[in-house]
Amino acid sequence: MRFRTQLRDSKTFSKLTASLSSLGKVCWMRLEYEVIRFTIIPDQGTQVWASIPVGTIFDDTTYELESNSDAINIEVNISVLNRALRSAWGATHAQLRLTKKEKTPLLALTVLASEWTEGNMALATNDDADGFGDDPNSEEAPADTTGDRGPRERQTWITQEIPIKILHESAVEGLHEPHCPDPEVHIILPNLAQLKSISDRFTKLASTDSKNRQPGVMAPDAPGMHSVSFGGAGANTAATALSTNSSPKLELSANMHGSLRLAIATDELRIASVWSDLVNPPLDPAQMTQQEMSQLPSELNRKREASEAFDFGWAKVRIDGKDWSRVLSIGRLSPKVVACFVNEMALVLYVYLPHNRDEEESCLTYYINSFST
Amino acid sequence: MTSLSLSLGPPALVRLHDALICLSKFSETVAIEAEPDLLRLSALNSTKTGFASFAFEKGVFFEAYSFNSSVNGRSGSVSLERFFCQIYNKALLSIFRGRIDRNKDTAVERCDMELHEDLQQAECVIKSYKLTYEPAAVQHAVFDKSKATSMWTADPRFLKQLIEHFSLSAEQLDMYSDSGRAVFTSFTTKITDGKEVLKHPVHTSVAADKRDFQEYLVEENMHVAINLKDFKAVVAHAETANATVTARYTRPCKPLQLEYRFEGVNAEFTVMTRGQSDSEDIPTSTRGTIPRQTPAPVPISAIRQRDTRPSVTPSTQMPPPPPRSRSIRPLNGSSTQENLSQKPSADRPVASGLSMESDSLFVPADDDRQWDEMNEEEEPQDILGWDASGTQDAFGASIRDAEPSFSKHDGSHAEEADDEMGLPPTQRLSQVRQYGLFD
């Protein structure tokens, strides 16, 4: 079993691990010849299955993998890996390899960090030199400090040894991505920074509201967005059901005519933001026939009249506000995100990282369960 | 009657505040010693493994400084012309709270402090604070610079860059020299369950070129380990002072001193080192001519118990120190640290109004932290914490108005075993060995 590679893009790798680590600590990392898979299945909350082509984060030419099963499965604390990868930011050389130390398998990250220094530390204090001069043993101190004080490249070697667990192929055989019914709606999400800050704001308002029980918390007007306060008897019943759960639940819904609505409701407040003119991407014709495709619920919804669609053809999920915030942390990689809504059941996000045209695409799939009312 | 009065200008006030913050990372209390020519603030941590001291020089640091000792009758004994006491650091810090900001005009023109034997009073232009102090035995860690066999000097910003690679949970810092490189390694002595592999600490080592140090005269392959948090506290302060740090040490299990001077302030940090002092276990030294000090008998002191208050009995003694270089001897008064440990009234305002400020709806595009999980008070991974005290509200104390119920000790009876003062290692060597670090 052997794995060794140079890092090609430690920044992307680091951001990726940062986003993954918000969902769970333990990450199953599967090293294959072409792709690296990261999977996090927390006890509660969203699972993520990521498939990253080797070349996206590692240097293809130095990538070495040897294993009887054509893959190495390891378990790693992803936030520890993330923290260690910080040492590789801006490094001239960074290598990741599998190794062992006293029977503990490790991922060893070796980094050569270079930095230009203007001479040797412009600081000089007069006092520091003495005090050691009267040392009777000073002649025994090797004069190994060179007089080289000019501007030069400062080089520092850093090694980070991250303890891991090797998983046998049989241990991961039973792990599969969840199966979902065909979605009713698929839509490209708006700018994630905006979506995240609005979602976080909603969640926060609802949680402060439920904590303090302060009447009269006003929904803020989100600039550039039309906020709709909806009221009435119908909404009230929904609100009561939602507020029984401890952490606030966001209601996310979308249709096949480019609309997405984010809403939250508690006893005291109901707010919603609606995006329109988003894209409902076409399905990949290579995957199925025209005939099959036209029978999919999402394509049926697409065919509805636009006027009719404002009332019908919405698919809705109820998701945990905090969990959603963690999921959206992937936005730091500025990906394109297609959200697939299975009404009242699940939300599946396909997250595509930006890539060069000649490269394979990196895809992270998030499976988010819908809470029932 | 002892009298002390001093005046600080705004820059010195900032310096004093920085020093107090640094001292707060070592101990809850700060010892104040006044001498005719200097004022010294120091702190000794609860395990007695770390001692921090700042000496402020009369002529350079203060706008005005006058100290008159009452012990005029005892002529000839210069060392007695001192006044010492200890004070709750939070009480001092709370005075400066909101008034010290190097980037803002804080409208403090001068800070005067006067000390009366019954009350200490600090007058800040308009406000005057009366702080209670207690007389205490001030203990100094002993360190003989002339006996140091290894030393290095480096820019604090460079040291900070090295430290930043270490994981936040790392506790100890091992340093050694290896063929032209200075190697710093972090490790954790926490015992982890063998099965929970993923909870094992990350082992980080950083090897820097010796040329990155201003001076580097260190015995080859000799491992010396110190508490990483202490080191962080020192580096953080040295960075604010923009002062080059010098480390001096001899062998593992002997004290190590970090020192720097700036603007009339002499900062010294004496910390205990760990490692293997047995000479046969040390990798063959390239400097065999160094006089070996006999390994100190390892006292059975408790394993790191930061939170429990130590019973400060002079009987838990330490390895014999190197011969003392200074004439200062700790005067006595039995320890009254317990009295000070009474917490001040714990109810202080929680910063609740802040929660909404951080989440402005539209955030600048480049801020990576916007992607972090919301609602986290302070994500430790993104903010490198320099606070080693472990108390989040280290700077938020209110002034105690209750008189502490201690009785004054006259400090005249001599300390029995003062020669044995020093710093104990925190752990038995046999325990250290199990981690295989030096095997």
Describe the fold and architecture.
- The complex is a heterodimer of chains A (373) and B (439).
- Chain A is α+β, with helices and mostly antiparallel strands and 373 residues long.
- Chain A folds into 2 domains: 2-116 and 155-171, Box (Proliferating Cell Nuclear Antigen); 185-209 and 247-369, Proliferating Cell Nuclear Antigen, CATH 3.70.10.10.
- In chain A, 22% of the residues lie in helices and 33% in strands.
- Chain A has helices at 10-21, 54-57, 78-85, 169-172, 192-212, 233-243, 290-294, 297-303, 306-309, 321-327, and strands at 2-6, 26-31, 35-40, 47-53, 64-66, 72-77, 93-101, 104-117, 152-167, 185-188, 226-227, 249-254, 260-265, 270-275, 315-320, 336-342, 346-352, 363-369.
- A 13-stranded antiparallel β-sheet of chain A has the order 5-1-7-8-9-6-2-3-4-18-17-16-10.
- The radius of gyration of chain A is 27 Å and the shape is globular.
- In chain A, 38% of the residues are buried.
- By secondary structure, chain B is an alpha+beta fold.
- Among the domains of chain B are: 3-72 and 79-141, Proliferating Cell Nuclear Antigen; 150-272, Proliferating Cell Nuclear Antigen (Box).
- Helix content of chain B is 13%, strand content 24%.
- Chain B has helices at residues 10-24, 58-61, 89-96, 156-163, 228-241, 337-340, 429-433, and strands at 3-8, 29-34, 38-44, 50-57, 64-68, 83-88, 111-115, 120-124, 127-131, 150-154, 172-178, 181-187, 203-209, 215-217, 224-227, 245-249, 255-262, 265-272.
- In chain B, β17 and β18 (265-272) form a beta hairpin.
- In chain B, α1 runs antiparallel to α3, α1 (10-24) runs antiparallel to α5 and α4 (156-163) runs antiparallel to α5 (228-241).
- Chain B is globular and about 60 Å long.
- Residues 73-78, 118-126, 279-365, 376-421 and 434-439 of chain B have low confidence and may be disordered.
- Classes of the chains: A alpha+beta (373), B alpha+beta (439).
- Chains A and B meet through α1, β6, α3, β8 and β9 of A and β10, α4, β13, β14 and β17 of B.
- β9 of chain A pairs antiparallel with β13 of chain B.
- Chain A: Belongs to the HUS1 family.
- Chain A: Residues 127-142 have a biased composition (Acidic residues).
